Amino acid sequence: MTALAKLARTTAFKLTLAFLALSAVSSGLVLGLVGWQVGAVVDQEMTQTIEAEANGLSEQYDQGGIRRLGLILDERSREPGSSLYLLTNAAGETLAGNVARLPDGALDRPGFIETPYETVDVSTPGRRALARIFVLPGGFRLMVGHDLRDKARIGAVMFHALAISLFCLAALGALGGLLVSRRVLRRIDAMSNSSRAIMAGDLAQRLPVSGSGDELDRLALNLNDMLARIGELMAGLREVSDNIAHDLRTPLTRLRNHAEEALRASGDPQSYRAALERTIEESDSLIRIFNALLMIARAEAGADRAGMSEFDLGAAINGIAELYEPAAEEAGVDFDVRIEPGLRLVGNRELIGQTIANLLDNALKYGAGDETRALPAPGAAVAPPRNAVSLDVRRVGAEVEIAVADRGPGVAVADRARVLDRFVRLEGARSRPGSGLGLSLAAAVARMHGGSLRLEDNGPGLRVVVALPFSGAARQLPAPAATALMPALS
Amino acid sequence: MTSMRILIIEDDRDAASYLSKAFREVGHTVDSASDGVNGYDLAHDGDYDVAIVDRMLPKMDGLSLIGALRAQKIETPVLILSALGQVDDRVKGLRAGGDDYLAKPYAFSELLARVEVLARRRPKGAGEETHLRLGDLELDRLTHKVARGGEEIVLQPREFRLLEYLMRNAGKVVTRTMLLEHVWDYHFDPQTNVIDVHVSRLRGKIDKDFATPLLHTVRGAGYVLRDSPR
User: What is chain A's alpha carbon radius of gyration, rounded to the nearest angstrom?
Assistant: First the structure.
């Protein structure tokens, strides 16, 4: 495509052309209107002149009859720049005047006519006149007229003016259009070059901004903002997928190592079977890790908003508590549950339930009497105190707090932020089964609900508090006094 | 377990042939289709006890297929298999007319247990019996009373629901996940032994003083409530 053709295809150029056409039509209209008006004025003036002359001639005729009229006409005809006159008798023969010929029958109808004529002296063809015909007694006809040359001349002048102005308009418009579109085209070209570079992978590139603050600048600024936002999102996405890839590599390696080990140690079917079973077990745990990671990622992205609905938090958590109660008792743990009734919450019941289940899991696992933990209490080394796990759900101001507390070693203040990260497992926990994702998921679920998760000292032990904004509009249904506090389950 | 006619609609040929083989090994008859349209035709004309439908299928996706079947008043129980395991995906699947939902990857024992429980529901409209009986164990759903050999056994509400679910599926293996789903209405994977403790407590109440145990553990799968040892 040549540069000119490219220029001609720009919107700016097409717009210029359209405006050009519009102004040409309007100036044509204006000039046409003026011409028409001028013509009308000329016509009117001519008519008035003819009328005045006819009045004068009529007086002469009244005084001296046809003879006098003929003399006067001859006299006037000889004056330079005179009007046009013709007087004929009933036979149609010319008696006086400076008009040689009129078309046949032109003298028959009285009144104004526009007609071609020929003069006596110079016979220039194609002349036209505006004339008034009078029919006099005795078959005499009188014509008083004016040549139309002046009017035609004015029309020609007007036409010239129109032609010249149209030409100038077209030339200037085309030039302006080309200049404007070249300017716009240059900026658009710069923008599309930048965007091509961005598409080619240079995501740090931004569209040029001229600084004039015009509409192209505004567009470029908006697009740049959009690019920045996309960049942020992509970085976030990349981080999540990098993390997932990294996080899955470790268990995958373990799985592979075990399979390889089983192959190397050529054994009996029995040991192969055991190795296979172990492989399935490991892949199951891999899937669990993957699901948990996915859930965390989705909760962090707020993607599970669709699964939110209003539910009775107390009933939901009570179900989880009932689920864990026998296991706690089996493990010799005092399990104390206090749930404030009538707390309704808008959220994802499944995720919240699973979060609390994870926290109870942790409390039972790590909060149980552990021989390795340092117990400052004298005499405790003989018989570690019985573990106690509590689950508390209550309303605190604008929030609902779900607290799971144990009497285990707790988490040192320095480790509290770190332990919420994925796969972080503290010393002493590594020897036990677990993925290190439970608290990460709990924190992500809390954040997804607009709440937070914090770790506190239970003196001794750990207290995990999930605080969720209380969205249930506090519709505290008047609960029967008997259920004011659900009794501890154990 | 009586033999069932199972329809598998799954576009992954490996998975389909693995499932067909596994179901045949335990004595069921299997047909399979590899796309949604073919699957719909088979499900429409064939008299299957249960259909296993993959959610993402060529030509017609799983949920539309189920919707089309239900619109035709074909009430074959459907289990949806899906790689989408999130909570709302599950809800969407059940709302579309599926009867159960299992996320990939799954253990075959889990799928088998769910399919067998699902197929039992076939005579629809028979109504839920109010009185369940297995050998000398009786459960009344209206009075919430349980008795074995005429002697009343006192159960906690949650234990009652556990036993009720086991009795309604007597003779079928139920997995831990199924118990968590039907007794607690939660759909996550119970990672610790919480369910086992509940079952062993229940076992302590209904089997302890009796010669024939009814509640059996099926290794690697779950539990079964059965009258006579197989």
Answer: 53
